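User: hey, got a sec? need L-lactate dehydrogenase folded
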Amino acid sequence: MSSKITIIGAGSVGSTIAYTLSNQDIASEIVLIDINKEKVAGEVMDIIQGTCFRDPINIKAGEYEDAKDSNIVIITSGIARKPGQTRIELAQTNVNILKDITPKIVKEAPNALYVIVSNPVDIMTYVFTKISGLPENQVVGSGTILDTARLRCGLAEHFDIAQKNIHAYVFGEHGDTSFIPWSRAHISCANIDEYTTLMNNIGKEIPTLDKDAMLEYVQKSGGKIIANKGATFYAVSASVCRLCGLLLSAYDSTATVSSMMHGEYGIDDVCLSTLSMIGPNGLKGKVPVPLTDEEVEKLKKSADALKSVIAQIEL
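Assistant: Yep! Here you go:
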């Protein structure tokens, strides 16, 4: 099946997403759009010259009108987070950029599924949902998909097991108030504590997991990478491309994307990540998995933190 994906923003994240997609079979056409015409032309030339080793794919540097008939539009535009800067501190600057982009791209691709990647992603997803005029099923933020990937990476290393055997998620804000609902975390059909006991009983020495340290690993990974190399873009690109694949699949899947809350867990009028059902028609809704009272309170704390930022920005 042919599919067209447009990417707004040719910075480190946007161009890496385009490159990653060029090595997969998700899209048959990729359009990369950026205000910096020379930069986007260079990125496309560099990417397309490596596609001789795969089946033909159409990649072009374009304008907004070239997004027409896109199946998916990925928005990565915005100022990158600097070392020591929180995602929330980016809010108003990137909101202003999004307010400029939104009517231009929605005019050209009103039927596309939109994936918001720009940080702070939950705020940006909320703003786009509010100002785009699109049905909510067409809009998702990348949310805690990356956080969940980091969690599974950390758990795979701790338990010395392939990540595909791990079902654990990060909920809430893509940021400092995120949390891990450990009551929903399983490895090979056993919860984390059960799995540790089971492995020790068969002679595979597994140390007790420090759950607080694992959450810190998840939350601090982005900042550490930025401090070390200046930006994060490989893992987020892989996460977004995986999300695109789910949105273009024949069947529905679950993922921790950011979307508008409508009373789930007692939370309303804010975008954050819980387990959601997504598929070829976009967002199908939240999957109301049971959480402990403590976990619900953590989710509400995350929602309140985001609402406090929304109250301070100009929509």
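Quick note: Residues 211-229 form the longest helix (19 residues). Let me know if you need anything else on L-lactate dehydrogenase.
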